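Cross-posting from the modeling subforum.

Setting up a comparison between two proteins and wanted a second pair of eyes on the formatting. Protein 1 (sequence, then structure tokens):
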Amino acid sequence: MVQKAKILLVDDRPENLLALEAILSALDQTLVRASSGEEALKALLTDDFAVILLDVQMPGMDGFETAAHIKRRERTRDIPIIFLTAINHGPHHTFRGYAAGAVDYISKPFDPWVLRAKVSVFVELYMKNCKLREQAALLRLQLEGDGHAGGEHEKEPAGLLAELSARLAAVEEQAEALSKQLDDESADAAAVATAAHLERKLTGLRRALDALEPGTGGSAGVLPAQG
């Protein structure tokens, strides 16, 4: 069973949250509500999110201040933030949103299809990253086990490497298709950059697997850094 990604919706008006839920429900992911910046920061303490939709105009802690707190935390600094605002104050206001760490800035009323498409890109990237981390963790676990086993089960590592290679190939194929889709749709620069970062991680993991193949001269105890 594939675990669903979580999307954080932050807005002080219940009707706006309902509208966002109606638009994004088609993505079949887990939608989490927050009615204030403080509530959003509390949710981010315990859960991982694929993307945050953050209203700018909120009483108390506004969207800019909330984003600043999110970007200061190591755990949450890399979560994409899409700002939503009902008022367009011009380029300076928009620049402030990007300076606060937003990957996109959308004025209300927005096109539901466009918003859903933008969010789906970040959900897809998040799911690819999750798969990559799972494969890397499995490989490291097996390598640690091999070190303790002293070579008692020589056939098992080879079988595991073949399985990991096949799984990685599937992820690589999906990542390549996603990159082509982003190119075709002239997507946001932030989404393209995130996809490129994912491909670099996949390349590093592929090199690690290749180095572990018999006859390559690679060390089974060392993995290249995943930057």
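Protein 2 (same layout):
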Amino acid sequence: MPTIDHLPVIEPESESTRRNTKLVVQRTVALAIVAVKGETGDHAMGQALIRQFDAAGFFTPRERAFMDDPDPSDRDRTNFAWRYEGVHVMLWALGISPELERPDHICDVPFIANTLRELGTDGLMRRAKLRPQKELLDAADLIYRYDWAAVNARLKGEEPPAGLDKGVVYEWHYALNWLIGYMDQDWDDISTDT
């Protein structure tokens, strides 16, 4: 894996934002619902999931616009379908998934679907145990470096190193930056600077 000596470290624990468990659970549910609609394009199913998970208040403005659109563009559907990767990161952060492996393959969508179907919003909240901030920061720092390597390869016209999946890396970077409160940005405005 290529590295760069002058890539700065992310903020220390004392300067990071600690999200509360309820907010992370709500973000997880919202991401899962927008991803399902992105994948299937099924507007009615999306609305049913909002009711099933009592999630009407969980969405950002951009997500709400997507969920309200009965016929979103293919580009929007693709972009929102990628949010399964954010769900994967959130389930790890909540202690539901045991590890955050290397970002070299897409996440296990059936595991996500089964977990959320089985637990629902309330069950997810009861089972969630948000990982220590240090773990979240370590994961954010590592993905920041992976993303730098993937972007560097793209700029050189090369494939991402070590089999990294650049889409997965980007989505994990996005989710982890939200988890640690990078630059105090809202979900719709998260930066993934490298």
